[in-house]
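Duplicate of #3305? Posting structure anyway:
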């Protein structure tokens, strides 16, 4: 039970009625992240993206702009494109059923035996053009909403946009993109990535170089936390001594650990100073980042379907999607890694595939190109192995409701907003009603 008696009902994690309510009030009313601009650079380039029951087409048109269309023929409702999620190419959209042909801008062109249709209908573009949905660009990504009347993207993002801009995410490129299919509700996975209280138990290796009591800030309907890297947790044994993980951090920022004279708690500052010294010659956005951002992992929740975990040299987008077969106890989890490339550096094109949860070791699935991180694959594997067990708990008569600590307050904030939309709040009102905290807090206290 949270503040003011708010209760996260376990039924929300498996009930079909609740899933339908979420689709109507949340998923179809908010903005989501779609493909990356670089995925469809030229005219005719497409990107197919599923979201629950909908298959969505993003198409680069002859005028160079990207449009979004529902993947459905206006004649009798056949799916136009049948491929898997991901990039594709077409000169036009031809329906396999009766041969209607649509241009890349969605307008209906050729219709076999056109004269057999009522001209008032067949010549009415509103009636026959592919139905579109709104798209906008931000941070090198194409975002979309299925709500014609939703607020503009920048208004939706609010203060998060300003937090993200110094990272120059538009300069990064996709290094790897994998989709995990889990037998759990989308919120089960979302919750697991929305707090770092679990680091000390599930990911104890992180404590060697980073804290788990991450400062948290609410940013309207969105939120963030950051984990200080180069500063071992006080829960870590011998946390005042250098350890291999800290030495690796020093090395990565160009400091020789053998000659480093500071204490373990000095590593974070040393890393910041080293990167500050490289900012004018670096491909990484050091120059626009704060000192803290030069060392730490900044983790943003973008309501309702995305986390960005940002490091100075790369970032991970974690995108949550409803499963196409409508089962609220299944979901897709997209794990997308992006990094700016050094001058002359190339990485092999990423190979997107869907991996069933637990089917294969995460470490064997993810490829980091030149950005390999020694423990992130292992840490992600620990999360992946867990979520389907938590899902079972939501179904158990032995479980009442989550009991949340201050380190988990982003969860209550998130569920409250989902619940408010389901109970009829308008998105605009919700954005206005949510607090913006400029000073993040740990355990209810402002971080100095
Ligand atoms: S359903 Fe597409 S042409 Fe008939
Ligand atoms: Fe985790």
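Output from current build:
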């Amino acid at each position: 039970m949270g503040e003011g008696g708010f209760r996260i009902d376990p039924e929300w994690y498996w009930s079909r009625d609740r899933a339908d309510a979420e689709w109507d009030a949340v998923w179809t009313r908010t903005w989501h992240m779609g493909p990356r601009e670089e995925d469809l650079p030229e005219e005719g380039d497409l990107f197919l993206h599923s979201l629950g029951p909908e298959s969505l087409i993003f198409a680069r048109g002859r005028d160079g702009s990207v449009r979004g269309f529902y993947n459905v023929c206006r004649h009798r409702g056949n799916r136009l494109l049948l491929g898997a999620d991901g990039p594709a190419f077409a000169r036009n959209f031809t329906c396999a059923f009766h041969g209607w042909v649509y241009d890349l801008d969605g307008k209906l062109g050729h219709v076999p035996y056109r004269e057999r249709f009522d001209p008032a209908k067949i010549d009415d573009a509103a009636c026959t053009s592919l139905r579109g949905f709104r798209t906008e660009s931000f941070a090198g990504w194409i975002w979309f909403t299925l709500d014609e009347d939703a607020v503009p993207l920048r208004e939706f993002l609010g203060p998060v946009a300003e937090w993200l801009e110094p990272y120059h995410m538009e300069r990064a490129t996709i290094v790897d993109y994998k989709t995990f299919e889990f037998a759990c509700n989308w919120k089960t996975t979302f919750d697991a990535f929305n707090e770092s209280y679990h680091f000390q138990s599930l990911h104890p290796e992180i404590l060697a170089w980073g804290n788990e009591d991450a400062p948290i800030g609410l940013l309207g309907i969105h939120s963030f936390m950051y984990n200080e890297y180069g500063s071992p947790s006080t829960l870590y044994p011998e946390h005042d001594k250098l350890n291999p993980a800290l030495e690796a951090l020093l090395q990565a920022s160009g400091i020789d650990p053998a000659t480093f004279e500071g204490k373990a708690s000095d590593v974070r500052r040393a890393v910041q100073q080293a990167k500050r010294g490289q900012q004018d010659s670096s491909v990484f956005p050091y120059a626009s980042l704060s000192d803290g951002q030069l060392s730490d992992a900044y983790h943003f929740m973008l309501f309702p379907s995305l986390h960005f975990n940002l490091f100075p040299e790369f970032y991970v987008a974690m995108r949550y999607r409803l499963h196409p077969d409508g089962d609220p106890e299944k979901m897709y989890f997209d794990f997308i890694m992006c990094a700016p490339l050094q001058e002359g550096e190339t990485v092999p094109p990423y190979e997107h595939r869907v991996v069933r949860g637990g089917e294969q070791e995460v470490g064997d699935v993810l490829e980091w190109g030149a950005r390999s991180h020694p423990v992130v694959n292992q840490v992600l594997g620990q999360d992946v192995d867990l979520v389907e067990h938590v899902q079972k708990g939501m179904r158990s008569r032995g479980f009442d409701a989550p009991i949340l600590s201050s380190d988990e307050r982003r969860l209550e904030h998130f569920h409250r907003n989902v619940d408010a939309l389901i109970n009829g709040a308008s998105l605009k009102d919700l954005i206005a009603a949510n607090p913006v905290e400029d000073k993040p807090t740990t355990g209810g206290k402002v971080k100095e």
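Confirmed duplicate; merging threads. The chain is about 25% helix and 25% strand. The chain has two domains: 36-139, 167-446.
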